[in-house]
Design brief:
Helix content: 10-25%
Distance between the termini: 44 Å
Mean pLDDT: 96
Shape: globular
CATH superfamily: Vaccinia Virus protein VP39
Oligomer: single chain
Order of helices and strands: HEEHEHEHEEHEEEEHEE
Number of domains: 1
CATH architecture: 3-Layer(aba) Sandwich
Low-confidence stretches: none
Strand order of the largest sheet: 5-4-3-6-7-12-11
CATH class: Alpha Beta
Number of helices: 6
Strand content: 25-35%
CATH topology: Rossmann fold
């Protein structure tokens, strides 16, 4: 992968003529994503992010850390032991330069070692699952990384609203796959990343998946079509 998002984060931090990222999906048109979005302070984050950070406790794994803003708030603002994980080498470099003490450059499926009290997956955290047929693989991995009394804080958006309505009031969703499975494209400085699979989940579908993989789930917060959920391990006793 070309790591265009990491390059944009790197350019912004080093003031090397950064430009907006351009993002699109297989069901949406190109949209601007200002790079400074990844450098927001707590006060500029949305309510779902703020609530997740407020609920974070103990040793934390921040998956998809980007420029490290969530990790820095937890580390410096709450004094927590935080590990920022991202598969983007340039993003991890910026996390380090910004002062994140513990960083991990890895795909989450390939990581092993520590276990955690809180695992964060924010900014549509369900996206990393890629597709419905891979959810079990990721949830099994997350279950292995979570301490027995730990929590996973994850957000997603139900994108049903993005589909057209039929004359009879029904919604015209794809017949061959779940409507939240999309191809995600990133463009930066006239270059284009190879599309990645990205998964937006409605709460009912997420609930069914996590309960099949040893978790209980609680909806913590809902903001329009987006929500924050907390996963905890099912008590088998």
């Amino acid at each position: 992968m070309k790591d265009l998002m990491g390059q944009a984060i790197w350019d912004f931090y080093h003031e090397q003529n950064p430009e907006n990222l351009l993002t699109e999906t297989s069901i949406s048109e190109i949209d601007d994503l200002p790079v400074d979005y990844f450098f927001r302070s707590f006060g500029d984050m949305n309510l779902i992010e703020q609530k997740a950070l407020e609920l974070s406790k103990g040793k934390v794994l921040d998956i998809g850390a980007g420029a490290g803003s969530h990790s820095l708030y937890l580390q410096n603002g709450k004094g927590l032991d935080v590990f920022a994980l991202d598969f983007s080498p340039k993003s991890i470099e910026i996390c380090q330069l910004r002062g994140v003490k513990n960083t991990l450059c890895s795909d989450i499926l390939e990581y092993s070692g520590e276990t955690f009290d809180t695992i964060l997956l924010l900014m549509n955290g369900t996206g990393i699952f890629q597709s419905l047929d891979k959810i079990d693989l990721y949830l099994e991995k997350l279950h292995s990384l979570l301490n027995e009394d730990g929590q996973i804080l994850i957000d997603s958006t139900d994108i049903l609203y993005m589909y057209d309505k039929a004359d009879d009031g029904g919604i015209m969703v794809p017949a061959d796959h779940y409507y939240g499975e999309v191809d995600y494209f990133i463009h930066y400085k006239l270059d284009t990343e190879k599309p990645i699979k990205w998964l937006y989940l409605d709460f009912v579908t997420l609930k069914r998946a996590v309960e099949n993989n040893g978790f209980k789930i609680e909806k913590i917060l809902k903001e329009e079509d987006s929500f924050l959920a907390r996963l905890t391990k099912e008590d088998l006793n």
